[in-house]
Amino acid sequence: MTTAIPPRPEPPPGVGATTAPARRPQAESYVPWKPGLLPFLLPLAVILVFCFWSYQPGGGALNWVLSVVWSLPVIGSVVGMQGAVLMRRRARQLRRLPPPSPAVHDALLVVVPTVGRRDTYPALRRSVESYVRHLPAYFPSLRVDIVTEEGCEAADAIAALARSLPRVRVVEVPAAYRTRNGTRFKARANQYSHELRIAEGEARDDVWVLHMDDDTAVGPDTAAAMAQFVNRQRRAGAKAKHLAQGILTYPRENAVSRFTWLADAVRPADDIARFRAITGSGTPIAGLHGELLLIRASIEARIGWDFGPKAIVEDAQLALNFSQRYPGRSDWFAGRCYGASPASVRDFVKQRERWAWGLVGLVFNRTIKLRYRAFLGMCVATWALGPLQHVGFVLLVAWATGTVNTSPVSMVIAVLWAINFAYVVWCYWEGLRLNAHASAGGRRRWWEPPVVLLLIPLFSLIEGWGGLRGFIRFVRREENKFVVIAKPA
């Protein structure tokens, strides 16, 4: 078991590892991603031409309802494309810079909470092995903490894994442990780990905490991008950032179901679009992922994870609390992490349901100022209403009511619709490209782009169904549940 990180001398010693100075890793391991704009502009042009050709003003009830609900996502669409443009600019800047150097003046703690079931252990092992393999080259001072419940099902296997790898220790959350506010689930484990770091004297400015899920691995590009970010903050002085996040991708070889893998193309696209724009602008009001979340240990110590018994989207709640206390102090980096899509459609819906359930509760959380909840609330409302906005449902209602014309009440509204539909196409196209690039071979297979485009209506229905179920559970005031789906190896 490794020891706590000591106060930083110059030059800094490694944590549970060699004290030899780190060498610069090979530059070829770090290639910033540059999203395309043509997959948005081309569908936008086609949809606009169709709208101008087919538009007939409508003034019925359905026309007015559609004019509102199909226009709601436009703010998120515009913000997302702004993020894509900003990422292209950042990629050009990064490619002109020298290769990232190791972060020799800062320490990195990787925190990996796990439910510790046998069906989640293979993915945990894959992830932890990647941290030990790739991170030390850029972070000589490194430790990996596997945080699990006392007496969990896979406790023996997890302990053996920690013994077999350097820089890894197991942190067991005692069964009797209770937080002051009664926080449960993953946030409780994060709070225990957080309190342990404070007790061990590791809640310092020169210590960074990387929060990862137990099925999410890293690569050389992840380590390089994080080191570049950390070194940049050391030079930034009073303007330094305290939190950052990168891109979550899903390699094809990690997928059990090819259908859910294609459906998850939307998630990395969200990272290079909406999250790039919002988190990268300094204030993460759109929330955060629970993985590839890099935060300064001293800042995390002031916020904590003790959000109360209803917290099931602790990452998003941390983001909004951070936004209130440290506006303008977050950033975004171009490194990727490598997760796995749900193993089945059922797990896919359960995952989305939990997210929506927790996010709706967070939107109504009055301990957070309204201006920090507003954008998230708009996004969640659009998500929860998804099935009622679906084109299939709209056509069914039009048929039932004898409505022939489903055009909006103004041509201006049709332009907003075109932006939204083109953005959805862009998300699945670029997200698929990102996931394929993160996979073995690094390319899309010839049939994947047309299939993912044809399946967008079905994917959006499944996404919306999960969102609507989460909203219904919140309205019915059901007891919060933190559902952990099986994790592919």
Structure, explained:
Helix 3 crosses helix 17 and helix 13 packs across helix 19. The chain has helices at 38-54, 61-69, 74-96, 121-134, 155-164, 185-199, 220-236, 258-263, 266-271, 274-278, 297-303, 314-325, 345-363, 370-384, 386-389, 391-401, 411-437, 448-454, 456-475; strands at 107-113, 142-149, 168-173, 207-211, 217-218, 243-249, 293-296, 330-338. By secondary structure, the chain is of the alpha/beta class. It is globular. It has an eight-stranded mixed beta sheet with strand order 3-2-1-4-7-6-8-5, sandwiched between helices. This is Glycosyltransferase 2-like domain-containing protein. Residues 1-14 have a biased composition (Pro residues). InterPro entries: B_mannosylTrfase_Bre-3/Egh, Glyco_trans_2-like, Nucleotide-diphossugar_trans. The chain crosses the membrane at residues 36-55, 61-86, 374-399, 411-429, 450-472.
Question: What is the topological layout?
Answer:
Blueprint: H1 38-54, H2 61-69, H3 74-96, E1 107-113, H4 121-134, E2 142-149, H5 155-164, E3 168-173, H6 185-199, E4 207-211, E5 217-218, H7 220-236, E6 243-249, H8 258-263, H9 266-271, H10 274-278, E7 293-296, H11 297-303, H12 314-325, E8 330-338, H13 345-363, H14 370-384, H15 386-389, H16 391-401, H17 411-437, H18 448-454, H19 456-475
Parallel strand pairs: 1-2, 1-4, 2-3, 6-8
Antiparallel strand pairs: 4-7, 5-8, 6-7
Helix pairs in contact: 1-17, 3-17, 13-14, 13-19, 17-18
